[in-house]
Each structure stands twice: as C-alpha cells, then as structure tokens.
Write a structure and sequence with these properties.
By secondary structure, the protein is mostly helical. The chain has four domains: 1-53; 55-102; 111-186, Arc Repressor Mutant, subunit A; 197-267, no CATH class. The chain contains eleven helices and two strands. It has helices at residues 2-9, 15-51, 56-74, 84-91, 95-103, 111-128, 151-158, 164-173, 197-220, 242-266, 274-278; strands spanning 177-180, 183-186. Strands 1-2 form a two-stranded antiparallel ribbon. A hairpin with a 2-residue loop joins strand 1 and strand 2.
C-alpha cells in the first residue's frame, strides 16, 4: 500500500518496482550460474581427493580455513585491518570458529613444489642461457662436473641449494635428460613429473589456482585490463582424427611455450639492478588439452 501511494503521488519513480524485481532475479541468476560452475569445478577435484584418501571432513576444514584467510586478506573494509567479527559475518562462521581458523597455521610449502619449480628453472636455463649452448646455439650436451659450462654449474645457477645429483635424479625420473659417456643430454624441452604422484599433485594446486585467479580477475577488470584467457573447442571431431590433433597440438603448444619462455628470460630483472629486482613480477601462460567421450555432457 505504501509503495502504491508513493507511486500515485509521484514521489517514487516507477523504475523502483522494476529494479525491485530485476535486481533479486539478477542476483539469483548469478548464484545459480556460480553454483553450476562450482559443481563442475568440484567434480574432478573430488575425484582426485577421494583417490588419494582425503575424506570430506578434511576438505571441509580446508574450505573453512580458506574462507577465513580470504576474508582477512581480501575483504577488509576501506583498507582497514580486518576484524574477527567482520570476517565472521562475511563467512557465516561463528566468531569462535573464525578466530580459531585465523590463528591456525596452514601447511607450509613442501618439497614437491620446490622440486617442480627448480626443475622447470633448470630446463629453462638450459634452453635460454648461452653459457650452456653449443656452437649452433642449441642446448649443449653438458659434462656432469665443472666450474663453467657443466650440468653442475647449470644446477647451481638455476636451482638454488639443491645438489647436482638430486637434480639429475629428478630430471632422469621425468625422462627430461639422459646420461651420455660425456655427461648429460637434454632430451625434452619441458619438465613433466615422472612417477612421483606428489609432484603431479603439486601442479594441481599451482596451475588450477592460476587459471581460477585469472577468471576472477577478468570478472572484475575493465575490458582493457583483462588478462588473456581463451580456448579452442569443437563438439564433432572425428575419433580417428584425435591422435593427429594430440600430436599437432603438443608440437605447436611446445613451440609457442619455448618462444615465450625465451622472451621472458630475456626480460628478467637482474639482481644487480635493485630497482628492477624490487619491481619484478611473476607471470605465467598455460595451455592444456582436454577431451571427453560422446556419452558425457560435462567432465564428470
């Protein structure tokens, strides 16, 4: 009755009733879309969790801890320090639970993540650093030991404090290198973890998080500030053509990634230049291949 009276008096624009309907419907539509997206995202993740013995209780604790961490890190009001009360209201958790989770130490980075990152840096250095190239500018076969131009020197320069033999074992297990009578030869221009499930699972956290963070950025950013996020797909590819496409996509993607890796290496901030080093940023670009059978409508 009040709204009708205000409309008749002209004090309330008619658009109010339109927005009063549209806005809740819009919010519901967004929530429904996000719910469907979350279910699609969770299905392959839950398969990985169940396969590796992570039960729902452990996942729920991690989810609650993440809600609290993000509330404190990204949702403080007006740039002020976040409070337990505000984080509790935002997450829907009790103040007691919010305080407990905020004070709870999260898992520290493990050896799998460090080995993966260091192995990637070693191969990148081998591909792009002229100190480890032959006369034709290609990655050279390296003697195992030596102050310069050796595998030991490569490992020392690009992998921190890991030992030469430890890095050699990692790269041999992944079939990235092979031993020769003269030393070590690079046989794959990329590092893909071998039989170590821990390293493969480390990629799950790193690469999936980067993709989701890019999507999150693009949801909020102005068009000119959006990050590149594309894929090519086709619903009706002949089954007998898939092996050829797998080979073609791997070849083209590897060539592109090597080109981009060389560009990034050429534009690295140097430790000797304090200004460049202080403003250095981490960037990455990923490419993936996916397929599903004709009897499935999603990745479940």
């Amino acid at each position: 009755m009040l709204i009708a009276s205000l409309l008749k008096s002209g004090l309330l624009p008619i658009d109010f009733t339109i927005f009063g309907t549209i806005i809740p419907n819009m919010v519901k539509s967004i929530h429904d879309t996000l719910t469907r997206a979350l279910l699609r995202l969770l299905k392959p993740l839950v398969r990985v969790l169940l396969r590796n013995g992570i039960a729902y209780g452990s996942f729920a604790e991690l989810a609650k801890k993440t809600y609290v961490d993000v509330a404190f890190e990204s949702f403080a009001r007006n740039g002020k320090k976040q409070t337990v009360s505000q984080a509790s209201a935002l997450t829907g958790l009790t103040r007691k639970e919010t305080k407990r989770l905020h004070e709870l130490e999260g898992p520290q980075p493990g050896g799998n993540e460090q080995r993966y990152n260091r192995a990637v840096r070693v191969i990148s250095g081998w591909l792009n650093d002229p100190l480890f190239h032959d006369a034709d500018g290609r990655p050279a076969d390296l003697p195992l030991e030596g102050e310069t131009g050796s595998f030991a020197a490569l490992v020392k320069k690009y992998s921190g404090d890991i030992t030469t033999q430890a890095m050699l074992a990692v790269l041999l297990a992944a079939a990235s290198v092979e031993k020769t009578p003269q030393g070590v030869r690079l046989v794959q221009h990329a590092y893909l973890p071998g039989n170590d499930p821990g390293e493969k699972l480390a990629i799950l956290g790193n690469d999936t998080a980067e993709l989701v963070a890019t999507i999150d950025h693009n949801l909020l950013a102005e068009p000119s500030a959006r990050r590149f996020q594309r894929k090519v797909s086709n619903l009706r590819v002949r089954a007998d053509a898939l092996p050829a496409f797998r080979a073609l996509s791997a070849e083209k993607a590897q060539a592109l990634l090597e080109e981009l890796d060389a560009w990034l290496t050429a534009h690295e901030a140097q430790a000797s230049d304090d200004g460049d080093a202080a403003s250095a940023r981490y960037v990455s670009l990923g490419i993936y291949f996916f397929e599903r059978g004709p009897d499935k409508e999603d990745d479940s």
